[in-house]
Amino acid sequence: LPGALPQGRTVLVGTVSRDGGQAALLRLPGGEIATVVPGDSTPAGRVVAIGDGEVHVAGLLGQQVLRMPGA
Predict the structure, then answer these.
(1) What is the pTM of this model?
(2) Strands ordered across the beta sheet of 62-67
(3) Measured over all CA atoms, what is the biggest interatomic distance in the chain, rounded to whole angstroms?
(4) Lowest CB count within 10 Å: 14, 58, 61, 65, which one?
């Protein structure tokens, strides 16, 4: 659906449990989907932690929490 997710920024699509911890699916500003784990770098910053339905990232503007749209 066009416009279902905000365009032009990093958006959390979902979180999943994997061997050894949590991972997150992010839609990046260019539209591609990336699977990330704590320590990975993203356009929004470095992934610090992944919780149920949220990703904590630290970047130039400090720490922010990405949540799934509509949550």
Answers:
(1) 0.82
(2) 41-42, 45-51, 54-59, 62-67
(3) 35
(4) 61
